[in-house]
């Protein structure tokens, strides 16, 4: 029996990369959804001020907002942006997107279940 410790960082982090993606987006979604004061449990009032006299108020479902912001913009958009921003040095990975989106949905479930 042989036990060894590796110093190859890519080997260590490669095994946990998907777990890190999942947990990061789960926490991100919980934090994102908890910053809003909700008028009801599921509705968020968003007000856009055009100028001092004009403003538009929209009521948005908190879970729909989290899907757009956390799943689509952050979860999927970050994978596209990392390839663009690093001139192709970072690799686009569909498995990362899947873990990002699943983590975001788990965060939404936590907020819904625990009424955070």
TrEMBL record:
Q: Does the keyword Membrane apply?
A: yes
Q: Does the keyword Transmembrane helix apply?
A: yes
- Give the top-rank taxon of the lineage listed in the UniProt record for this protein: Eukaryota
Q: Where are the transmembrane segments?
A: 60-77, 97-114
Q: Which UniProt keywords apply?
A: Membrane, Transmembrane, Transmembrane helix
VanZ-like domain mapped to chain residues: 16-112
Q: Output the InterPro entries linked to this UniProt entry.
A: VanZ-like
The name on file for this protein is VanZ-like domain-containing protein
């Amino acid at each position: 029996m042989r036990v060894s410790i590796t110093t190859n960082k890519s080997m260590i982090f490669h095994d946990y990369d998907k777990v890190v993606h999942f947990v990061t987006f789960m926490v991100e979604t919980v934090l994102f959804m908890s910053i809003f004061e909700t008028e009801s449990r599921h509705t968020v009032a968003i007000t856009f001020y055009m100028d001092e006299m004009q403003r538009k108020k929209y009521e948005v479902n908190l879970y729909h907002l989290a899907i757009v912001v956390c799943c689509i913009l952050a979860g999927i958009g970050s994978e596209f942006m990392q390839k663009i921003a690093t001139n192709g040095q970072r690799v686009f990975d569909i498995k990362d997107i899947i873990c990002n989106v699943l983590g975001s949905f788990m965060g939404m479930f936590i907020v819904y279940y625990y009424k955070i």
